[in-house]
Hints:
Blueprint: H1 3-6, E1 9-10, E2 16-20, E3 23-27, E4 32-36, E5 42-46, E6 49-53, H2 59-80, E7 83-90, E8 95-99, E9 102-106, E10 113-115, E11 121-126, E12 131-136, H3 139-152, E13 162-165
Antiparallel strand pairs: 1-6, 2-3, 3-4, 5-6, 7-12, 7-13, 8-9, 9-10, 11-12
Amino acid sequence: MSRIGQLPVVVPAGVDVKIKGTHVKVKGPKGELQHTFPADMAIALDKGEVTVKRPSDERTHRALHGMTRALINNMVIGVSAGFSKVLEVNGVGYRAELEGKNLILNVGYSHPVKIEPPEGIEFEVDARTRQIVVKGYDKQVVGHVTADIRKVRPPEPYKGKGIKYLDERIRRKAGKAGKV
């Protein structure tokens, strides 16, 4: 049995879950998410807990069982607490700043790069620590926006300049060896 799929998803106070067949709609203080899951999964809500059951022990059903439960759990956590990812800007003269809701990046190009947040996403910039915080209620969108920001100037292996995740480790390379 799937260990993740077997666990019930506890619905906290202030979060409303509606299930119609395999269509799940979750509404909370941060926002509203909905998703339609594969028809084979049986999703039920009772006593403030969402449970997912699978019809058989086939390989595809086992995979869908854990994935369905994990996605529902992410939806519930997202609308109640939200998700965030932190990026770090490294490099001489590299900086990030907010202009209204938009993120402005000065990372070595001849022009500043402007990034507009999609719906449900907000940016925070700490100029002292040179960190960018991406916050939102949809885990997938938060990860996608964060990856797009990192793509503007990925970290390079020689000096480590660029935009990287806070917990990312850059493998450094030695430069050219001079004549001895």
